[in-house]
User: Fold this.
Amino acid sequence: MIRVRPQIAATYRAPSIYQPTDRLRLHASERDTPFSTTMWSSFVNRLQEHDIRYYPDSSTAIAELATFQALPPECITVAEGSDRILKNIFECFAVNGVLSTTPAFPMYEVYSNMYGATYHQVRYVEQRFPFAEFSSMISTSTNLVIISNPCSPVGDSLDSNQISYLQNLCIANSALLVIDEAYIDFSELTSAIKLISRGNLIVVRTFSKGLGSAGVRIGYSISDPKITAILRSVKAMNDISSIAVIWMKTLLDHYHEVSEYVLAVKQNRMKLELELTANNIEYIPSQTNFVNMTLAHELPGIITKRASLFDDRIWTRVSIPGSERNLVALISSLLNTA
Assistant:
């Protein structure tokens, strides 16, 4: 009988089902608008045959991100997606008690179980982060506190004072605070990056959401150099592909396209929420590029996602299009089937 680590044997992973592209994909917070031909040509022209044959130089990716964030390279780690960054964090720091919310990004619990930590969850009971109860749960038995901000999958957020308060509690209890900022580009929030100098914080970022590059798999973390050094000790030997590095450079050189897309999503989110209000469709105000609404039926021609949040109802999660045409199609489908 082959022996398996008990934590792995007990871990359940729901399969990821790839959705077709013959319908409007509004289920996974993906960018719905194409990048410009100018930017795409720039990317293709940077590719060299040896980028396929040679191992990648991830140090160039770290240097690009350091410049982009105006931080020393010693504060940054990079990997093939933010979920790999999260796995590295749990491998290094999930020694005992892990604290998060329910609902939350499901990989928090998966990685906690995978590395044998005790996972504690504070339940949402309404549309807002359960701040008072969550704060009271941070104790000397807490090793790792992890939340997303803006908060996924609900869509709400914590302000800077609340994040600072949680960080102080973590410092007092010798705990590490991890803030997953996957959706921050779509919010009005100030990043927690400014707090990393206090030495107990990791901020996780991704290229999949605001930067619209889910298929390339680029994630990174920002932390104090001592924490960064620990994270780098468990990184893959080659942690990001040459193709991803070239795409990163191209995207950051054409960052105005990111800014235009993010602005379009924020404007369309406001338009969608106004339509939902006008048509008495209940929804949760969002600081992300998705919105949860009460909708009991499928939308023809549109792929959405169903979720359980803080009550007994099933909510429909819809990604906010950046395209005005796709927004019109979404609203039309909503109203015609309501």
